[in-house]
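Could you please review the protein record set out just below?
***
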Amino acid sequence: MREEVAVGTYFVVVFRERRVPLCPSHVAELVKSGVKVVVEPSKSRIFPDVDYAKVGAQLSNDLSPCDVILGVKQPDQSKLLAKKTYMFFSHVIKGQTENKQLLDKVLDLNISLFDYECIKQPSVASL
């Protein structure tokens, strides 16, 4: 039985998109607490790969060992992994027609999806 929790991050190449779901300092805290962090390599991200490697992240295109996979933008649907937990801005809550295909894929693959837009605090509209 595997006891170690693994968190992965993916990066979507979109014009001028450089945001990340975890900064290297966050990765360092997770690694220090015993979480395995896998970061998908990217030449476009705001933080270079070496910054993640220095704090203990594993650089890999294979996120299949990860329990939770974090991103900012919607991932490439062909890369979604079945029965995983994902967190990203999915925009499916808005019922937009262009996002229906993503929601269908998430449901077909039995994915647990946490849309950042839906994470709220009582005193704040959204985080």
Remarks:
- Strands lie at 6-9, 36-39, 58-59, 68-70, 85-88, 112-115.
- The first helix runs from residue 24 to 32.
